[in-house]
Amino acid sequence: MQGGRIPRPADCAGTKVMSKKKSPLPRYLATTGLLWVMWVVLTASFAVQELAVGLLVAALAALFTWRSPRFGGSVLMMPKRFLYAMLYIPYLVKEIAKANVDVARRVLGKKLLIKPGIVKVRTRLKSPLGRLILANSITLTPGTLSVDMRDEDFFIHWINVESDDIQQASRKIVAGFEKYLEVIFG
Amino acid sequence: MQVLDVIGALLTLVGALFLFLAALGLVRMPDFYNRVQTGTKASTLGVILSLTGLGLHHPEWLPKIWLVALFVVITNPLSSHALARAVHRAGLPLAKGSIRDALRDEYGLESPALVESKVATDAETEA
Known about the structure:
The structure holds two protein chains of two kinds.
Chain A: H1 9-21, H2 25-43, H3 48-65, H4 73-77, H5 79-108, E1 117-122, H6 128-140, E2 144-150, E3 153-158, H7 166-173, H8 175-185
Helix pairs in contact in A: 2-3, 5-8, 6-8
Chain B: H1 2-28, H2 32-57, H3 62-90, H4 102-107, H5 112-126
C-alpha cells in the first residue's frame, strides 16, 4: 500500500540522511515504474502514444514524490513482515465493515445513540510511516477519527466514548491495528 | 454470468444503502465532528461496495475500479483528518453532551482561538 504521499518533516529528514549514503537513482526509477504501471492500468491501453506520454508524466511526477516514505524492498524480503502485511488488509476490511454497521445502527436509532468526545491514546509504534498508516486506519474505521497527533499521542474523536482513560482507550482503539503494524514496521 | 450480475446488483444496492446512511448522518448528527464521522466515512464502504458491484457487471473494468477504490481508501481518511484538525484549530467546540475534549486540555490556553472555544464549551455545560 502506497500510503505515504504526504511529506512530513520527520520522514523527509530521515530519507535525506539515507540518500546521502545510497544513490537516489534506483529509488527514483522504482517510483517512476510504479507510477507508470498505475497509468497503464488506468488508461487500459497499450498504444505507443499512451505509453510514451504515461512514461513522461510518471517521470515528472516521480520527481516530486520519490522521497515519500514507503515500504522498501525490506518488507517483501522478510516473510514474516510480508505475511502480516497481507493479513492486515482483511483485518482492516473486517474492522471497517463491523464499524460501518455499528455507525449505521447509531444513525438509524430513534434517539441518536451517541456519546461523542475527543480522547487521547498512545501508540507504541516508532516508525513515522507506521504511525501514518495507524492514524489512517483509525480514521477509516467509522466511529473513530484522528483529529491530531503529537509524537506518540493521538487525539481521537470517538462517536461513542467507552473510556477516556489513556490505557483503556488505547487498548480499544489502537491495540488491534498495532498488533499487525508492530510486526510490519519492526 | 447471470449469477455475477445478480451479485453485482446486490453489492451496488448495499453500497447505495450505506451512502444513503451517510447522507442521513449528515442531517441527524449534532456537530461538525460527528458529521465528518458519518458523512465521509460511512461513504467509504458505500463507494467500495457500489464500485465493486459495478465491476462485477463489467469484469473488464475491474482493475481500474479497484484502483479508484484504493485511491478513495487512501485519500478519504486524509481529507477527513485534515478537515477535523483544521476545524478544531479554528476553535469550533464539540457539541453539547460531549464527554470530553482531551485535545483542548492538551493545548491548554496557548492559542487565542482555543481560549474562545473553551469559554464557549464551558458556558454551554453550565447552561
